Amino acid sequence: AATTPVLPEVVEAMAPFWTEKFGNASSLHSWGREARVAVEEAREKVAGILNCEPEEIVFIGTTTTSDNLAILGVARAVQSQIGNQKDKREKLHLITSQIEHHSVLDTFKYLESQGFNVTYLPVDKYGVVNLEELEKAIRLETVLVSVMYANNEVGTIEPLSEVSAKCNPSTSPGTRVQSARFGTKIYVHTDAAAAAEYLDLDVQKLGVDLLSLGSHKFGGPKGVGILYVRKGTPISPLTFGGHHERSLWPGTEAVPLIVGMAKALEAGIKNQVLSIKRVTGLRDKLIKGVLDKIPDTVLTGHPEKRLPDIASFVFKGAEGEAILLRLDAEGIAASSGSACTSGDLKPSHVLLSMGIPAEEAHGSIRFSLGRGTTEEEIDYVLEVLPRVINDLRSLGKGI
Ligand SMILES: *Cc1c(COP(=O)(O)O)cnc(C)c1O
After folding, report:
1. CA distances (Å), 51 to each of 66, 92, 111, 203, 273, in order?
2. Does the active-site annotation cover 340?
3. What is the distance in A from the centroid of ligand 1 to the CA of 193?
4. Quick one: CA dihedral 291, 295, 298, 303, positive or negative?
5. What is the model's pTM?
6. Model confidence pLDDT, tens digit, residues 201-216
C-alpha cells in the first residue's frame, strides 16, 4: 500500500528512453518527435483505461501534486470566474471527507486558511462516507466535492458513483443539488491512488470530473502521476513556465517515467481479474488467521467492501510502533496508520474518525499484500505475529 516494486516489463519499456531515445518531447527534431510520440501513445493508453479522451489526461509529479492541482486548481478557477470579491470568496463552499490522505486534507486546510468554507464529512465505524451527511452539506455555494475512491489505511471502498450522483443534478434530478449561486456544476474529484491496482477506473461509470493516480502504487516508477480532468472543468495551474500538459503542469515531460507508468497500468489491467481473486484469497486467509489466533483483535475497515490488498487491525494492549519494529526484525514489513504519518505518534485520523478510541488506535497495524505475495509469506506472518503480540502484551502488563 505504501508502494510497489516496478514490474519487469515496465523496466524494459522504460529502458530505451534513458539513453538512445533521450529527446525532449518539445524539440522539433527527430529525437524530440520520437519522445513526443512515446508520451502521446502513453496518454492514449491511459485514456483508454480511464475511458476518457487523451486530452483529458495530465501527466504530473505524484498523487500528491495531482490532488493539489485538482483541488486548488478548481477552487481558484471558480473563484476567478466569479470575481475576487471577498464576500463571494467567503461563501465558496467545498466538501471532503475526514478520512482523506493528507495530500487532500492539508490542501483543504490551506484553502480554509484562505477564506474558503470547507465541510469534512464524517464516516461510519467501517470508514464509509455518510451519503446523507453529504446531501445535507451541499449548499447553493458548493463547487467541489473530493472523496477518495478507497482508503489507503483501512482499505474501505467508498460509494464514489453515489457521491457523484448526489452532486450532479442530471443523474439525480430529485435532489436539491446545484451550485446555483455561481452558475457552475458541483465538480467531483477523487484520490484513486489506493484503488488503482484492483478497482475499475472508468471515469464515466464513476461520474467524476477529476481523478488522481500515482504510478508507484500500481507497479510503475516513483515520481510520476496522472490527473484526469473532464472537458469543461475550470482549472487553474499552480506553477508557471511552459505549455506542457496544457499549461497545467509546465516543465519538460518525464518521458521514461510516463512510458513506464502507462505500461504498468496496462499490465495491471490485463491480469486484474486473476490478481484480484488471488490476492483477495490470501487477504482473507490472513484476516481469518489473525482473528482466530490473536484475542482482543479488531479488523478495521469494512468487512466486505474493502480493497483486495489491505488487512488492517487494532491489537488492544500492544503498541503499533513496537509491533512494527519486532516484525521488521523478523523480516516482515507492515505499517502503523499510514507510512506518511508513522514518523509522529499521533493516532491515525482515519481510525479516530471511525470512532476508534485514541488508546486503541495506537495499536493499529496495516498489512498490505501485493501481486507477488505468496501463501508461504502469509503462513509465516501467522506464525510470527501471535508470538509478537503476546510478548508485547505481557511486557505491557509487567510494567
Ligand atoms: C500514496 C497515496 C498518496 C500519495 O502518493 P505520493 O506518491 O506520495 O504523492 C495519496 N493518496 C493516497 C490515497 C495514497 O495511497
Report:
1. 19, 31, 31, 6, 18
2. yes
3. 6
4. positive
5. 0.94
6. 999 999 999 999 999 9
